[in-house]
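[Discussion] Sanity-checking designs against the backbone

I'm trying to build intuition for which residues belong where. Below is a structure token string of 146 positions. I'd appreciate it if someone posts a full sequence so I can compare it with mine line by line.
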């Protein structure tokens, strides 16, 4: 069961996302989301231990207000472009990138930066561990299949 939950979360993480490119797009998105939110959302700060239970509606609304302030203060661009959602009208998965950990702005990276925060309806897993296993695990894995 654990493995299928992990796979569901990874599949959702790797799924198709749309950027909220402009600040007014983000405003519209937050406004729609605030009208629909309930107690079934997880707030995951990537790098910390994933939460085991969803937050209540009040906590999610508080987080949205606080993250919006942080993004506007610390993202030194006249556009947003660092919030992505699986569905602008009925989201179930939202990636929010940390303005201070955006990595390369163009090109390819073997280890692209992970979002700073993820809001999801699916219980989160430790992304770094799932996506980028320690090098010793890769060596072990490669040794078996050489």
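Best answer:
Here's mine. Compare freely.
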């Amino acid at each position: 069961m654990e493995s299928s939950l992990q796979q569901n979360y990874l599949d959702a993480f790797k799924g198709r996302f749309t950027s909220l490119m402009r600040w007014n797009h983000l405003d519209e998105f937050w406004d729609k989301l605030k009208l629909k939110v309930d107690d079934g959302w997880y707030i995951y700060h990537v790098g910390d231990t994933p939460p085991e239970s969803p937050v209540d509606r009040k906590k999610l609304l508080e987080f949205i207000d606080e993250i919006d302030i942080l993004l506007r203060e610390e993202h030194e661009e006249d556009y947003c472009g660092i919030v992505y959602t699986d569905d602008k009208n009925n989201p179930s998965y939202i990636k929010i990138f940390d303005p201070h950990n955006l990595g390369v702005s163009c090109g390819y990276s073997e280890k692209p930066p992970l979002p700073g925060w993820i809001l999801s309806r699916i219980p989160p897993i430790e992304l770094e561990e799932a996506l980028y296993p320690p090098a010793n695990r890769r060596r072990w894995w490669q040794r078996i299949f050489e």
